[in-house]
Amino acid sequence: MKMRWLVIFLLISLLRRLRGADIYADCVAFGHLDRQLCQLLESAEFEGSIILKGPSIEEASKDFGGIYHNKPAAVLSPSSADDISKLIMIAATSPNLTVAARGNGHSIGGQAMAFNGIVVNMTSLKGINIVPENDADAPYADAMAGEFWVDVLRGAQIFGLAPPSWTDYIDLSIGGTLSNAGISGQTYRFGPQISNILQLEIVTGNGEIITCSEEKQPHLFFGALGGLGQFGVITKARIILQRAPQRV
Fold it and tell me: How far apart are CA 248 and CA 246, in angstroms?
């Protein structure tokens, strides 16, 4: 039994080394990043995937606005906030490497692009947990930033619940709309989406992963909501829920 686990461990280590070697070779071959950054990306051992060629690069080169076309050097599809933290700490070692978070690509002015930088494909961050009743709080949903609002609605409807405020188009990522405000025709009654959030998980500009709210680090909490990503990358949000209306 011990020998079997040793073999499995050695195989996993070998696969990681081969994967890292591929990252480094592709990174150097395409020449958009210097060798030091390529080595750091190789050694980071992201749990998610980092792509340096192929359709993902082209997809990350454009957005809904269609005005700009900026090709990144790489696209990271993180599996957790830890991957984003690693990337931001690597970027901090370079004077000119840019990092941009991209949800469903509905920016109109190239905000989700990073020319010769690294785009973070936030849609790989998945997970929704609906808490229908709580002794201390109103119902809420804990959702990863890469989830779409339509999926939050589907999960909440099972319990007869729904978020109070929406955008008019709901195939948008949670992290994307919360970074902008989340405004629709419901805003006059319930406020924008950023007014209906209890808590955020954020990766800051120095790579620190922080959970914040009105009570805990409120300056970061209110700065990140509608902050256009300038205060950090939102990776998870706790969203207020209410009883879904019988009529709309």
Answer: 7
pLDDT digits (tens, 9 = 90+) for 56-88: 889 999 888 888 888 998 999 999 999 999 999
Tokens of 138: 């109103």
Is 118 in contact with 99 (CB distance < 8 Å)?
A: yes
Q: Which amino acid is at 194?
A: I
The predicted-structure confidence for 179-231, as pLDDT tens digits, reads as follows 988 777 777 777 788 889 999 999 999 999 999 999 999 999 999 999 888 89
**pTM reported for the whole predicted model:** 0.83
In 48-178, which ranges are continuous DSSP H helix?
55-59, 81-91, 149-157, 174-178
Could you list the beta-strand ranges (E) of 78-221. Answer: 99-102, 118-121, 128-131, 140-144, 161-162, 197-203, 209-213
Q: Tell me how far apart the alpha carbons of residues 181 and 131 are, in angstroms, rounded to a whole number.
A: 24
Tell me the C-alpha distance between 183 and 174, whole Å: 13
As a whole number of angstroms, the distance between CA 215 and CA 188 comes to 26
Tokens coding 221: 């909490």
Instruction: Please give the Cα distance from 244 to 247 (Å, whole number).
Output: 9
Residues making up the chain, counted from first to last: 248
Q: Compute the distance between CA of residue 128 and CA of residue 117 in angstroms, rounded to an integer.
A: 30
Q: 3-class SS at 38?
A: helix
Evaluate whether 63 touches 105 at the Cβ level (below 8 Å): yes
